[in-house]
């Protein structure tokens, strides 16, 4: 039993080392900076089931600005991954008759592009916060919260599809790009989820009898 545990541990370590080699070093630095910036700016996080927290517009603007900055980094890197995967598909088309692998590379870069578009759209909307009239900010943040919730679902789907297509690709370089893209998408989802918690005290109360009476953007709620 001890030998088996040791073998499993060595295999786990080997798999982890292989995975880390496929992830772009620059991305790891960017993600660390993004997470550190967000954690530093969200000290007044309110939790998921109450509206007790800061609605100070300056603090909200600071948190939104930090998320926007971090997501801009992620979106730019997703752009570069899209370009590299597109070029890899062109190379694959020129040198191989493996249509299945080519098709999966093409589908993968399309989902990277989709995730990038979703991220860019949220960045543009959130960047408008400083210019919204104070009397309309609760309405604005309520809409942004609902948008962020949908964006999370769309990006989760994109990350899942990337995993599916990666299973049918043998090119290690392409697999490394896909894994980096998936990690960037996961990092963006994390930032969005943190921001949703920060926005919770400032949004309009939900209608009665919703799943979470304090939230108009409860995950999975259909508004019954």
Features:
mainly alpha; 6 helices; disordered C terminus
Walk me through the structure.
This protein has 224 residues and is mainly α. It is 73% helix and 0% strand. Helix 2 (25-41) runs parallel beside helix 6 (172-199).
The radius of gyration is 20 Å
Strand content: under 5%
Shape: elongated
Which H/E pattern describes the elements? HHHHHH
Helicity range: over 70%
Average pLDDT value? 77
Number of strands: 0
- The first-to-last residue Cα distance is 52 Å
Content-based structural category: mainly alpha
Helix segment count?
A: 6
User: What does the main sheet amount to?
Assistant: none
Low-pLDDT windows of residues: 1-10, 12-30, 35-53, 219-224
Quick take:
With 224 residues, the protein is mainly α. Helix content is 73%, strand content 0%. The N terminus and C terminus are likely disordered.
Topology:
Layout: H1 2-22, H2 25-41, H3 57-95, H4 99-126, H5 137-166, H6 172-199
Helix pairs in contact: 2-3, 2-6, 3-4, 3-6, 4-5, 4-6, 5-6
């Amino acid at each position: 039993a001890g030998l088996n545990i040791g073998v499993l541990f060595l295999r786990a370590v080997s798999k982890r080392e292989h995975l880390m080699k496929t992830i772009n070093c620059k991305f790891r630095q960017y993600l660390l900076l993004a997470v550190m910036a967000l954690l530093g700016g969200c000290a007044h996080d309110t939790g998921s089931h109450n509206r007790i927290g800061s609605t100070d517009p300056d603090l909200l603007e600071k948190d939104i600005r930090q998320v926007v900055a971090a997501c801009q980094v992620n979106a730019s890197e997703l752009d570069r991954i899209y370009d590299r995967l597109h070029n890899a598909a062109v190379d694959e088309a020129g040198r191989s008759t493996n249509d299945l692998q080519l098709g999966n590379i093409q589908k993968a870069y399309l989902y990277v592009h989709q995730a990038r578009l979703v991220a860019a759209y949220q960045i543009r909307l959130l960047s408008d916060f400083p210019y919204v009239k104070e009397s309309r900010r609760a309405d604005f943040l309520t809409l942004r919260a609902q948008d962020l919730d949908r964006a999370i679902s769309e990006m989760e789907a994109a990350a899942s599809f990337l995993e599916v297509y990666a299973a049918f690709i043998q090119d290690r370089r392409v697999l490394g790009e896909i894994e980096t893209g998936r990690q960037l998408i996961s990092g963006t989802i994390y930032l969005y989820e943190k921001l949703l918690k920060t926005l919770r005290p400032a949004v309009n109360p939900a209608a009665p009898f919703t799943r979470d009476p304090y939230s108009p953007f409860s995950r999975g709620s259909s508004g019954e």
